[in-house]
Each structure stands twice: as structure tokens, then as C-alpha cells.
Amino acid sequence: MSARATDVRPTVLVVDDESGILESLRILLRTEGFEPVLAHGGKQGLERLAEQVPEIVLTDIRMPSVTGVDILSAARQADPDVPVILMTAQATLQSAMQAVNEGAFYYIQKPFRNDELIAILRRAAEHRHLRVENKSLKQEIRRREGAQGDRPVGTSKAWLEVLRLAETVAPTESTVLIQGESGTGKEVIARYIHQLSGRTGGPFLSINCGALPEGLLESELFGHVKGAFTGAVKDKSGLFAAAAKGTFFLDEIGETTPATQVKLLRVLQHREVIPVGATDAEAIDVRLIAATNRDLEEEIKGGRFRSDLYYRLNVILFHLPPLRQRREDIPLLVDHFLGRIARARDEAPKHLDESALDATQAYPWPGNVRELENALERAAILTAGDTISVNALPDRVTQPRAEPLVAARTPPNPTLEAVERAYIMWVLQSENGNKSRAADVLGIDPSTLYRKLSRYGVEV
User: Fold this and answer.
1) What DSSP element (H or E) covers 319?
2) Distance CA 438, CA 450 (A)
3) Per the confidence metrics, is the pTM higher than 0.70?
4) pLDDT (tens digit, 9 = 90+) per residue, 284-294?
5) Cis? peptide before 412, omega within 30° of 0
6) Residues 213 and 86 in one domain
7) What is the CATH number of the domain that holds 424?
8) What's the Cα-to-Cα distance from 264 to each of 222, 245, 274, 277, rounded to whole Å?
9) Which of 76, 78, 322, 430 is 20 to 30 Å from the Cα of 355, by its Cα?
10) Would you call 328 helix, strand, or coil by DSSP?
11) 64 φ, ψ to 5°?
């Protein structure tokens, strides 16, 4: 590939401590279709690398303070695909071997012919182009394979809408908020977005914000410095730093305290974290996906969640349907989970008989997909043959208790949510199940009523 033949001029960082050589190389490279970026000495070369990674690096080896080998190391750390060409006036076999071992693309001795150097630079530009193109192709293959082979199971209309949205937003860097009841697959969707994103080669890390006390959660998220608190015997990087160039999944973000929410807001605003006990901020490069089973708009009204953090998180919003709203997916999920259980136990897959399958489709699954998987694992363990009967399923699935919309007897000390639920159901019954009229009587938006009914697990 000729540099002249391309519309884009490849950038070449030229590092040398002799001004005359820099100027002559600048003229040569510009004439031959390259875009030179000059650095006088190794220290300035490192500064140029920190500002912008070039497509090719051309550097002298013998320079005071910062050598060409230091430049080579820094360039490969910034981008392993950058070809680095080393120049020297005192070539030895030992220095050539060191250059190759350090990962140099080529090693050229001064003085060199201009056509020789240009030929090497063009091969380097071609090499980088092929490396980048190959990496992009592999990423596209992984994305397509992921979309076809590892697509989360389900063909219901509601579920397909979720998957299509995930596939649309995955290539972007947008922050994602996933809302849904416990067990609906919030982490599954988060992993699917990561798998189809440009960060798929980076880590996917997750944490349940409701599983840790505030102090420990902040240490895990942001890290801490030695002596920040009792037991902090050394510096520790947080999960935001560990997820660099990848995706960080914050599950149950609605459980965080106001103090933690302030710090998370800073992360989203400035893309930096301050470790516990530190004063200096550290830049982070991570995509954030958050999830909650709470209605965050209601949490904001109750003063339990910051509105500014909610609007920062709510760039792309997912509503995951509960399993009772996608019953047609249950047979597919049954086959999927029984196959996975069989592989884990190194045995042939089992299947449900007709009565057992009917029971799984009739049961409302308040614990959603997670409850279904646990019930199937139990049934597979208890079944000796290859056919699982209805008797192997938990009693709650085969003998569901009919629960009235409004309890006949009020518990002695009802919770506020129980009172709210009873009142909503009473109004709904009074309006003969008409949700729009019930919402008017309750003084709330119909969408809010639907969310509350979904949270209560009630279908009317």
C-alpha cells in the first residue's frame, strides 16, 4: 500500500535529539504522503505519545534520559498494533536482537537511503492497516456469532423488543439503565450488550449494590489508599479501575445510600473516581450499565434516590418483562435450562412430560426466570429417568394457592406497601378492572399504575 495512494496520510511520530535530522525527515515524509509529528528527544516523544497515539513511530535509539527502547515500550503499551521503527548510528547484533525482542517492527542503521526508509514506512503502514482490519473483522464475527448463538432465549414479542434494543445500543458508549423484577434477566441483558459492544475484548465486572454495607461498597467500587480505614494495610484498586476498557454492571443501584449516589454521579459526570482516603482523582475508561428492581421515579419522590443521578443513568432505558408476561417463552427456557443442567451433570438432557409443561406455563413465577431454573434443577435431580413428571416439580408450582386481590383479613401491622396494594386493588375492583378509570380515581398516571401492578405480580 502506497501512502500516496490513500486519502488519509498515515501519522508518523519522529523522535530524535538532533534538530537537523528531524527537519530533513519532516520534509521527506511530507513529500512521500505521510503526516510527520516531530519530538525533540525522548522526553518529548513520551509527551507526544500521551497526547495521541500515531499510526507509526520512527525513533532514534541512543538519546539521553529517555531512549528509543523506552519509546518502543511506551508505544506498545499505548497501542500494541503500532509498528515502531528504531534508528541508530551504532548498530550492533546485540542492539538489533534487543530491538526485535522488545517488539520493534524494523531496525535501520544511520545513514540510510531515503527510498529504503520510505519502503519500510509503507510496509509498516500496510502492516498496521491489516492488523486493525483483522481485529475489526474478528470483532464483527464475534458480534454476529453472539447475536445468533448466544442470544438470550425467547421469541415472545416483549422479549424480542428487549433484544433488538440491546443490539441497537450495544455498539454505542451510552450508559444503560435496566429495570425489572428480580430474576427477569437483568444481568443476562447486560452481558449481551457487553458481548456485542466494542468493549467485548475487555472485562465484564459486576457487583450487587445491596449486598454490601456502605463503607465496604465504596471501597470495592472506588478503591482505597493505605491507612484510609482500619484494615486498609495497602492501596487497593476499585472495580471501576479493574473494569478498564470493559463494562461495569451495577446491580440493584436503587439500594445505594445518598452518599454513594453522590460519588456515582461524579463518576458519570467526570469519568473519574477518588479512592477512599485519597485526594487525587483517577481517570477511568469503562461503560456503565446499572439495574434495579425498584421504581426509581417513586424512589425520587420519596427522597431515597437522587434525581440528577437518575437522569445521568437513564440514557437508554430497558424495561424487562416478567416471565408471566412472556409465557410463550417458557417451553424454550425449559429446554435451554434442562440442556444446561444436563451438560453440567454430564448426562443426557431430560424433558418435561405434558402435565409438567402445562404446570410450568400455568404458574405465575413470581421469582421469574431464576425461579424457573431453580425448579427445573431440583426436578432434574429428583428424576431418575429421562422424563420429568409433574410430581417432581415444587408443590408451589403444581398446587398454586389462589390469592384474593384484597385479603379478607388485614394483618395486625401491615406495611405501607401492603396498605397501598390493598387500596389500589380495592379501587380497581370498584372500577370493574378498568385501569384508566382506576388511575383517575387514584390520582396517578396509568403508566404508574401498570408499574405498581407489575411489581405486585398482579394480573387483572
Assistant:
1) strand 316-319
2) 11
3) no
4) 999 999 999 99
5) no
6) no
7) 1.10.10
8) 9, 18, 11, 16
9) 322
10) helix
11) -70, 150
